[in-house]
Amino acid sequence: MDQEKERIRERSAQDQDEFRLLQKSKRGVLNVIFGRTMIVIVMLAVQILLLVWLFSSLQSLVPYYYGLMLLLYGALILHLVNRPSNPTIKITWILLVVLAPALGVVLYLFVELDVGHRVLNRRLGELVRETTAFLPEEMPCPAGMDESAPELAGLTRYLWENGHYPIYGNTQVRYLPSGEISMEAMLRDLERAQDFIFLEFFIIDEGYMWGRVLKILEEKVKQGVEVRVMYDGTCALFRLPYRYPEMMRKLGIKCKMFSPIRPLMSTYYNNRDHRKILVVDGKVAYTGGVNLADEYINRRVLFGHWKDMSIRLQGEAVRSFTLMFLQMWNVNESGDTFARYLDVPAALREGTAPGWVLPFGDSPLDSEKVGEMIYMDILNRASRYVHIMTPYLILDNEMLTALTFAAKRGVEVCVLLPHIPDKKYAFALAKTHYRELLQAGVRILEYTPGFVHSKIFVSDDCKAVAGTINLDYRSLYLHFECAAYLRNVPAVADIERDFQNTARECQEIRLEDLKKEKLLTRIAGWVLKVFAPVM
Length: 535
Fold this sequence. Notes:
- The protein is α/β, with parallel strands linked by helices and 535 residues long.
- It has helices at 2-11, 29-33, 36-61, 66-82, 87-99, 101-112, 115-131, 145-148, 152-161, 179-191, 208-222, 235-238, 244-249, 318-329, 338-342, 370-381, 397-408, 424-431, 434-440, 473-478, 491-503, 519-531, and strands at 171-176, 196-201, 226-232, 254-258, 276-280, 284-288, 305-307, 310-315, 356-362, 385-389, 412-418, 443-447, 450-452, 456-459, 463-467, 481-487, 506-509.
- The chain is 45% helix and 17% strand.
- The strands form three sheets. It has an eight-stranded mixed β-sheet with strand order 9-16-15-14-10-11-12-17, sandwiched between helices.
- It is globular, with a radius of gyration of 24 Å.
């Protein structure tokens, strides 16, 4: 093992501050073309061609079995209309079945009959039951909450019944308004780790940022600190080699990919781990928009200036982020000792941090869209303003109604978006909502220096949500997400201040600006909007 570590070190590019496992020359286009990624792509393409062939075969049988096929299509449409689901998603499936009957039926059955979802959902349910032993037996209600924030009782009950997420006092929250500031704060806390470090990120990529983190992790392992790293399996397509977890394990770091992409078609791969969680010793936690790659700290410029954020929590609320990490880590293994990581001494003295923090996760495998419900609760209860930062704006009917209704009843609703998009199709989809939002009185700002990746809701100087949840179908319906609801916490003022500072660098979009939009962009948005719920 020691010799293997030395060989890894010899292959790595290192300096005093950072540590890398890969040589830059090993991460080019040729490595993708002749590596595992191309094998996966080819195998998936073969399976897609088989589905197309099945579709063509069924289509050719329509003249002979027209009546039977018509009954099948009709039954499927009746099923879609009557099943509990979002109306926009129903419309998309119905249009697909009507316009391309055989293809629509095959795709719908493929999605609904996929066993991967059921297995994962069952396992997550087991983990929730196992870990509830470390939570209060009854829904907690902190002293003073009913008097100063009576509306929190209903929200607390909702999150307790849908995920067993308690509300906490005694938690200090610090808002970090950029990736650069977030990285330096994370590094300081990693240096102080004494017992364990948990990292769960959607994206990890070798470079300066991850190199600095990895150097500290390697040193901490030598000091006897347990280190676990989990990242989403899509990183293995174009960012990190498939063997990267094995290379990490040779350094003494426990590492795994969530749902690695394999050459087998499954809608299970559509549900990605979009969370960003860092836990140090069960006393400090981070979440937000920042991943562990150089674009998030503007050392790699992709779409102009990258605007991002994180929050740092210290105190009782860290327990829920520790719990979320352990639940996801143990999806494909068992035998973890939860008590060691959850029964930790309080990081703050009682009464030293004002307000309440409600951490929560959102799973795509159940019927509850927790993130969307929390956002809508803020919109529906707002009296003066709701300010939003999000990289994407791909809305279902419920969220669109909540935004416009809040504006129509006199609430200042302002949505801050990128001016330089990372995905042109997502930007075209966002612009399909502009007219209806503007006509209702919603203000829309675009960040002219570049790309906004922050995910925040802040309202009425007293409440905010900060985390990983975008305003699009993927975050609200398809991804594993996490965030923290903040009430009467001093950091709420910092979030609003950051919104106002960012707004000064924005261009406000008005109705007359929509006439200048390129016709091709408008047409692309209209077409993509039909299929947005299943993209």
